[in-house]
Amino acid sequence: MRKAALSGVMLCVLVLAGAAQSTTPPRPFDAAREKRLEWFRDAKYGMFIHWGLYAIPAGEWKGQRSLGLGEWIMNRLKIPVRDYEPLAKQFNPTKFNPDEWVQLAQDAGMKYIVITSKHHDGFALFKSAASPYNVVDATPYKRDILKQLADACAKRGMRLGFYYSQSQDWHEKDGAGNTWDFGPDQDASGKELKNYDAYLRGKAEPQVRELLTNYGPVALIWFDTPRMMTDLRGQRFADIVRQTQPNTLIDGRLGTEGDYRSTGDNVIPAEASTEAWETPATINHTWGFRKDDIDWKRPGEIAFKLVDIVSKGGNYLLNVGPTAEGVIPQASQENLRTVGRWLKINGEAVYGAGMSPFGDEFGEWTAKGAKDVRGQKLFLANNEWRVTTRPGKLYITFFAEPRAPFEIPAMKNKLLRAYRLADHAPVDLKTENGRTTFSLERPILDPMATVVVVEFEGPKVEKQPD
Ligand code: JFZ
Fold this sequence. Notes:
Elements: H1 2-12, H2 31-43, E1 45-49, E2 60-61, E3 64-65, H3 73-76, H4 81-84, H5 98-107, E4 112-118, H6 145-156, E5 159-164, H7 179-182, H8 196-211, E6 220-223, H9 231-244, E7 249-250, E8 261-262, E9 277-281, H10 299-310, E10 314-320, H11 330-346, E11 363-365, E12 379-381, E13 385-390, E14 393-398, E15 406-407, E16 415-420, E17 430-432, E18 435-438, E19 450-456
Parallel strand pairs: 1-4, 1-10, 4-5, 5-6, 6-7, 8-9, 9-10
Antiparallel strand pairs: 2-3, 11-12, 13-14, 14-19, 15-18, 16-19, 17-18
Helix pairs in contact: 5-6, 5-11, 8-9, 10-11
């Protein structure tokens, strides 16, 4: 008891900035949107790929190390366009093999891929008539990266989406974000100081149209950092998507209403939500490749975050940052494949699974209303087990040896039987005074995570009134 309690306490001190209670009222039901979201709500787990010129300096510029995100090096070190643009002349990813990338995603158990078609630095990984600053026209490589990846995905039935930085473009004088070459975007009153619409109409909108016209079916467009994105400007992008590919999803960072909510980076909400949502996450501490960042998330962490997110109704979009040669770091591959092997056996508890009908297992808000550094209420998380569902079934995933006996949360439904998902070994249920418990054989079957399935009468859990 003490050890578990201790570990519980230790786990509970996590400060979850931005994970506060979601106060946003659920949006009105939209049948067309729900239709578009069906595959997304089933998929749960995707591969994010941040790749571009920033993989060449990989966190260091002319011997000077830049802190923070690798893909932000041009901004962090205020590198002028005249010095950064020539990186394109060095971009020649001879080891890029799209089939291997898609194979890795499949081995990892990921059901969709989202790649950076153009990030904040303005460089496009696809042939574009709207700007010569692209992989075909500006590099010795001269081949369209997105075309090759789209073909590999189509061949293997992998859904492909494109990240597109619609607002920030540090290469363009009228784009947002390059204050070191082109001055501030706005003055103190918010008045815009650049011809932002000229950039939007001259580059961003045409390029989004190209992405939705030249690469086959596009699963989603992942817009980002919506600076100066008025509803009108956001709607222009939404119209391009809806007119060219009506089934294409729009994420939550367009600046106007998307099809689902995007949390902050690496932010996992403390509680469940029926609205579709997605957590974009790094596998170390950067999106773009940095040669000095080898603090990789371990398979157990990844498995927990995935099941935690699914038990709260969300999707997990986990990133890899390939090197300039086009190689996904070995450690990323190994950790993703380890989780993929677990999903091969336990995927029933994840893909298409419903969120927890309970919630107490997530943890609790600090009673005394303690606040975190941002003045947000503190949530004391409990990471020992999570619940996901399918009609007539609870999937209880244990990330630590469960306290024996483990008590199943109260529910009206009659409990029929229980077994371990991995090998269907029966698990005995004991019911006394209306409480049902079970004990798991020790040591636990899979220390990374072990799933127990509890079958109950009826499709949905009927909760006991509190
Ligand atoms: C943005 C990018 O700046 C970054 O390079 C990466 O592409 C990431 C996926 O998205 O970074 C953000 C955007 C929004 C938040 C945090 C980081 N946010 O809302 O907390």
